[in-house]
Design goal:
heterodimer, A: 134 residues, Tetrahydropterin Synthase, Chain A, 5-stranded mixed beta sheet, 5 strands, B: 136 residues, alpha+beta
Chain lengths: 134, 136
């Protein structure tokens, strides 16, 4: 029987939205206060949804310990208490939460093999969230 | 067609154990969930039904009736119980969040008059939940 399992991970990070190809004025117009030069931060929540047949022996779609271990290394250690703009993956990419969601999806899709990745949803604040399903 | 979701809560204890495995194997796979003395959670159940809005009542289903069905079929059976020891379906089935979602679906399927069961979501805690949509 196919079920979906969702785990939420919390991390805090800073970013600044700025496109080097735009003029300073255009960056201010497009990104507003998100373009403030010294950046700002959020408490992000990444919601990772996996799906698959429930293993009759374990009752699980995948073992949470494996998922948590993967998330620790590839999500939390990578992003928590970091300035997103300084990371390699955002060297040439504006760290909007859209792009962050896609980056997190790609990390799980390419590295986590214990279940099918269905979707990644990232909450930037309690009022903003973004989803990517590939 | 409109989807309608009703929440219910229950608190229960459980442990994870596969009797076909050795103790070592159980501890290796299930970690601290394999503690045979059990542990507990405050579960939140979200049941979503799908149906047409009745032209006379403006309802997909009567919420009071749905609440009573959840209470009778699930909450009264699971709340303040040890799932492995006191709930029949988990005598031989590991009561993971995934399996609880599937078993709640089986308990409710076909019992909500005028609506189709769309999704059962079970939160074991705010940061972990399982969804089941049936096998259709």
């Amino acid at each position: 029987m196919k079920a979906y399992l969702t785990r939420r991970y919390h991390f805090s990070a800073s970013h600044r939205l700025n496109n080097d190809a735009f003029s300073a004025e255009k960056n201010r117009v497009v990104y507003g206060k998100c373009n403030n030069p010294h950046g700002h931060g959020h408490n992000y929540v990444a919601e990772v949804t996996l799906c698959g047949e429930v293993d009759p022996a374990t009752g699980m779609v995948c073992n949470l310990a494996d998922l948590d271990m993967f998330a620790r290394t590839n999500l939390l250690d990578a992003f928590d208490h970091m300035n997103l703009n300084t990371l390699k993956c955002f060297a040439n990419l504006v760290p909007t939460t859209e792009n962050l969601t896609i980056e997190i999806f790609r990390r799980f899709q390419s590295g986590f093999s214990h279940a099918h990745l269905e979707r990644v949803r990232v909450e930037e604040t309690g009022n903003n969230s973004f989803e990517y399903a590939g | 067609m409109v989807l309608l979701t009703r929440k219910a809560e229950f608190s229960a204890s459980h442990y994870y154990w596969n009797p076909a495995w050795s103790e070592e194997e159980n501890v290796c796979v299930f970690g601290k969930c394999a503690n045979r003395n059990g542990h507990g959670h405050n579960y939140t159940l979200e049941v979503t039904v799908a149906g047409d809005v009745d032209a006379d009542t403006g309802f997909v289903v009567d919420l009071k009736a749905l609440k009573e069905i959840l209470e009778r079929e699930v909450v009264s059976v699971y709340d303040h119980r040890h799932l492995n020891l006191e709930v029949p379906e988990f005598a031989t089935l590991v009561p993971t969040t995934e399996n609880i979602a599937i078993e709640v679906w089986k308990r409710l399927d076909g019992k909500v008059p005028g609506a189709r069961l769309h999704r059962v979501r079970v939160y074991e805690m705010p940061d972990l939940f399982a969804d089941y949509y049936g096998e259709a």
